[in-house]
Design a protein that fits this description.
four-stranded mixed sheet; 1 helix; rod-shaped; mainly beta; 2% helix
Length: 170
């Protein structure tokens, strides 16, 4: 009996080496006597989504033994994805800039999670100069385990631009 062992990996990672254990030898023999030891394959690739995939043993050969194959399961688990709110700066009385997010840990050419987290900041144009938290909420993707990291919006003093022409005597 050639039995594949269960295995796991994260989304986007290469498949691990699969193990096949052979049993049922007689006369004290071991797998070392096999003409060709069985191996195992799966249909899962680095691009395969989170889920379970069959590990299929095959290919064993020996004049003295017949092979019965027992499949196993490759579990593809979510990859860690760090979602960080980008820090922003704006002057007092200006509107908030676009709130953006940087992702660390994307795989397979993904550019964002299926449902990106929403960024928000309580500061508005009337907020006094200070630091305000940029929060992230929500977001999901079956291939990732999201970790949300807040950022900071820094409101600075307004630039004082003096129109000297308007001040000149007429």
């Amino acid at each position: 009996v050639a039995t594949a062992a269960d295995a796991s990996r994260t989304y986007g990672a290469a498949n691990p080496d699969f193990t096949v254990t052979c049993t049922g030898f007689v006369n004290g023999e071991t797998a070392a006597v096999l003409d060709i030891a069985p191996g195992a394959t799966t249909t899962a690739t680095t691009a395969s989504a989170v889920g379970d995939y069959a590990i299929v043993p095959a290919g064993g050969a020996d004049a003295d033994y017949d092979f019965t194959y027992v499949e196993a399961t490759l579990a593809v688990t979510p990859a860690a994805l760090l979602c960080t709110a980008d820090n922003q700066i704006r002057p007092y009385a200006a509107p908030n800039p676009e709130l953006t997010v940087t992702y660390t840990g994307l795989a397979n050419g993904d550019i964002a999670p299926a449902t990106p987290p929403a960024a928000a900041c309580a500061a508005d144009a009337t907020s006094v100069p200070d630091a305000y938290p940029i929060t992230l909420a929500g977001g999901s993707d079956p291939n990732y385990a999201l970790t949300l990291v807040p950022g900071t919006l820094t409101v600075t003093k307004a630039d004082q631009i003096v129109d000297f022409a308007a001040l000149a005597p007429k």
